[in-house]
Amino acid sequence: MGDLRTEEFVVNMGPVHPSTHGVCRLMLTMNGEQIVDAEPVIGYLHRAIEKICENRTYPQCIPMMDRFEYVTAMSTNELFCLATERLAEVEVPERAEYIRVIMLELNRIASHLIFYGTTAMDCGALTPFLWGLRERELIIDLFEETCGQRLTYNYFRIGGVANDLPIDFVPKCRSALDVIEGKMSDYTGILNNNPIWLARLKGIGTAEADHALAWGVTGPVLRACGVAHDLRKDDPYSIYDRFDFEVPIAQEGDCYARYLVRLEEIRQSIKIVRQALDGLPEGETRTKIKANFKPPAGEIYTRIENSRGEMGIYIQSNGDKKPLRVKLRGGSYNQLQFLPEIVRGKGYLIADLVAIFATFDVILPEVDR
To answer: What CATH code is assigned to 47-330+355-368?
Structure first.
């Protein structure tokens, strides 16, 4: 009887697979049920946001930033406004800075609640998904009362924010934070001792710190490898240097570590928002700029800590009312390119890849732009 030989074959996971969190295609080379290699194929969502911004005035670019990374659109607003303000030397009022930090951290919490729910659902648990959306709704309601939108906010402005907080925002925000903090024990209680959850995440998709750094990985994926890199601490922007908070890290670098880091980041963001609410000053919320706003000629690169890692923007100005060049950087892109490196040759199954992809928390508009 001859030797039994197998032949590798290619399977497409996506571009409309529910576990790819958007329009992403993963070309999997399989040997039986085991993954030999994985190649991300992107470009299905390309909308030329950078080129569109080069044909818009600076204030008109802000709504386009909302589409760059829609899950934490407040951070994309901050990114563009911060870069433009630095380029044009525009001062932001104190109250506006505090409001920005409050909105940024609330949006980070909302993003991680989505991560908690969708990752659990991808691995077969529906209840955490419903819980995550339930608490996220408290934050989205606050955003809707403030700026009228629930997903793409267009709330930040060059020089501040579009309008002041509603009268009852502060007590409602404190109440929402209390509810979310109180639910954290439920979140961990339903999963952290669940044998199926632990089997799906622990020891799966392990990444080494040096390897992750070599691929430009940032954010929770890097911090789960033991690297305490957070731009809010390492390169503070806005008024983040005024707040007391920790940078959560883990050492294992696997799916479970990435899950734990994001849950702890929710707790730290709650801590930051409470401090910002306590220190919220009175005053103006926006510095007036000319209707025909034109930054001086020059160039700038600005970066912030998005919920998925380092988010950056390069703006080149020739002194006109439209930017000459706009180039965006999102943390999801590097993480997606890093994905094959921790899957290749490890003998993982497609079910393992689903968990790995979910804990990378990739947002495809941030990849394709």
So the answer is: 1.10.645.10
